[in-house]
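Q&A log
Question type: sequence-to-structure
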Amino acid sequence: MRNAFIDTVLQACTERDDIFVISGDAGLGVFDKFKDEHPERFLNLGAAEQNMIGFAAGMAMAGYKVLVYNIIPFVLYRCYEQVRNDICYQNLPVILAGIGSGLTYAPAGMTHYSIEDLSLTRTLPNLAVFSPIDPVEARLAAEFSLTSTSPVYVRLAKRGEPDIHSVQQFDITQPQVLIEGSTPVALLCHGSIAEETMHAARMLAKEGLHPRVISVPMLQPLDSSALLHHLKGVGAVVTVEEHYRSCGFGASLREVIMDSDLSCSLTTLGIPSRFIHEIHNTSGMRKLFKIEAESIAATVKQLCAR
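Response status: OK
Response body:
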């Protein structure tokens, strides 16, 4: 997924001379060819994240389309004030490419997880937010980012995620129905956890249950009308995400449903609001928090049995 996003940006660099890439001592090897071919448009600013964001804002004000690349704790958490004041307040066309969404970096520990980033980005007007589920959505998010005149944050995994979409072109700002389904339950997901969600749907199909599965790649601004349209006729909605339940997409969707005339239940699957001290790989962490395929399928079966 990460490579699809970066490759799209670097391909655009061969066609445009206004793209400037900034790394915060990350992505070693990813930008080697670009550095060799365009040394005047690449800087590694090292472990100085606040300076990195301020520098990006200055380059954007000078007319560049700037890509800032780092892991999410260093592209958003450590430099939140600069993202808020220097980029979003000024509404500058900076792309924040955050690597390591959710629990991607397990077992590196809590310092490397990105399970509250959506709560922070919700507080930032002007900032578009994408959470692609596969390389196809990552590429389309990159294409959107390159043409946006406002800041964009894209949260990306990097574990070699498979293609989920069978089509290559669609509107990345809209929710995408992956499986139409016939059971009156809808599974909504974003990010790399979609792989588990799709696996759960295949497991359920073997038992005669066919929930609707929807990807929501653009989380801010959230297209409420499109979401409500896709949820018509659904009696139960389940959101699945590698994020705190209390402040992620599920919480945003709860607001949308409460402000509508939609009559359905909402179950949010995700991470409880606590610091994580357990150490597992990504699969183990998903099992711990019951967001792996088996637990997702079990939740749907419980809802269908009511």
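Response note: The two ends are 38 Å apart (CA to CA).
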